[in-house]
Amino acid sequence: MAKTPELARNQRVTGAERTKLGNELLKRYQKGASIREICADTGYSIGRVRRLLVDAGVEFRGRGGTQGRTRKDGKDAKSS
Predict the structure, then answer these.
(1) Helix axes 35-42, 15-30, angle to 10 degrees
(2) How much is the pLDDT for 4?
């Protein structure tokens, strides 16, 4: 995968560079990387990664975990 640029905490990324960076992060996300994994790899905050993904036209996956799902024993995960 392409190397992402190191950015200072409040450093802005605009124009073609922002588009290119967003598309790179989108490729990683579409290959199965989580937002947290992308953050760890790039050093970017969750907010920055999410904004770049949104700008790149991402369709976010559902959240992980057992929120609202039924457990194998038939009980609601929230009531246990």
Answers:
(1) 130
(2) 83
